[in-house]
Batch of 3 targets.
Target 1
Amino acid sequence: MPARKPLKVATFNINGVRTRLASLLAWLEREAPDIVCLQELKAPDEAFPVEPIRDAGYGAIWHGQRSWNGVAILARGADPLESRRGLPGDPKDTQSRYLEAAAHGLIVGCLYLPNGNPQPGPKFDYKLAWFDRFIEYAQGLVESEHPVVLAGDYNVVPTDEDIYNPRSWRKDALLQPESRARYADLLAQGWTDSLRQQFGEERVYTFWDYFRQHWERNSGLRIDHLLLNRALAPRLKEAGVDRWVRGLPHPSDHAPTWVSLARER
């Protein structure tokens, strides 16, 4: 009996799902990921382009928000089974930043962690408070006997090795010691940072801003992460970044980032 193809799970900050729909569909057709986490939909629920996504062979759930934020989970040939909408811990927080579902035998948490700029200030305070809530919630998932992946735009550059040159970014919320310390605290729960596990000390980027020819010069940052819990980490086979998507016309400033996982026997 031939071996089953690995399961490909990807995260992609689409930076406007309606604006980048053509790029999204081209990527789905070429790479055929089994599970996709999207961030920054920038569309209310009623404007999510579900029909062309279904025509591409994907079921979908989404949590939209007009003009900002928004997250979605797609599953190839299946409908994700929603298990949580919104992060617990603050009933006053109405921003669309967390969505969770079961798909293809995994529990998938899709997140768009707050950017936090400008800092210091209320936006950075919100970032840290959201991160604290996320860490508390993730503690239960890392210990789950079920395989869990937490995938998304974390808006954190974990170390200076995850950015082309930290000097001009030192005041940015993505590099602040408080942001990095929380990411380290999250990993300390027992999560595996799949890209770092795959690439070791090699530099790998997932985001290139639109300024100063940063894409052309490969002046990037690694801020999109896929974390695997203890039950799932042993199944990691490969990880990577579909950089070609960033080179398409009118692209998102992120590229899809993915892991390949052995299927359960």
Note: The chain has a mean pLDDT of 96.
Target 2
Amino acid sequence: MEYTYIIIDSDATSSLQFQHYLEDYGDFVFYGLAKDSDQGLNIILKHLPDVVFINLDKNATECFELVNELYKYVTAMPMIIGMSKSKDYAYEALKNNFFDYWLLPYNELDILKTLMYLKKQVPKEKTVPTICIKSYSDFQYLNTDEILYLKADNNATDFIMKDGRVVSAFKTLKTFEDNLPKNFIRVHQSYILNMDYVSRINYGKSICALKVGQEQLPFSKSYKKNIDSLKKVLAKSTFSTLN
């Protein structure tokens, strides 16, 4: 459910600031920065981003020409959001079917409203990655969102599923570590867990509790950085009651 975006802005400091804003919204993935319209056209045609943010304060004419030129080459136009310190280009942006127009400096509320409206108007279909477990001529396909965790078993790996099934693969845990979606993290020499099912992190006892099955998995000091990252991810969607 991610939206890819690029920025066209000759001001590197301004574009970096904006990237930091969008880091708080995990649905948006940065694909590149262009300093002018020529670079912008190249990056757009190469990556076909969902959204293009354009600073119109320099070379506005060339930027509007870029938008018109895109119609020649792409089937689905990206959503264009213009930015400027004044309202001087607002009418031209409207004529060119810009999705929105922001006044600089950035206003966090304006950004939030635009991004929420964008996601409402152009919803992304969620695709669930699958993983194939092969054993000789037997192929099993597992939806990754149904996997609670992976457990090492000598030179094999057990997939513990949400419905209670255990599916075994005759490969090491390391084999799967780099090929799983980003919501899977290594927490122990013997465990990789799906962070979507974590209900509790207990640093004192070095355990992670799961929402399903009331299981508790240990984590080791060598993977504490991963646990800290997990804690930050979970905190973004949590109301804290800590004093």
Note: The domain at 3-121 is CATH 3.40.50.2300 (Rossmann fold).
Target 3
Amino acid sequence: MNIPKLLITSGAVLIVIGLVWMVGGRFLNLGKLPGDIVVDKGNFKFYFPVVTCVVLSVVLSLVAYVVRWFMK
């Protein structure tokens, strides 16, 4: 296992996540995407972010794929 390569890759991934979080919050409306389930009745509010979970799953899977590719 190549520790320097792992540290550089982890740092790059964290920088990308930070930038996406900072910039994406303004442009991407994660948590309120079409397809997210919201039931609001009186004092009861139920929220289940179906599409947001799918989007995050795809992004994290791509990140894991890239990290595994760099680890070869």
Note: The chain has one domain: 3-70.
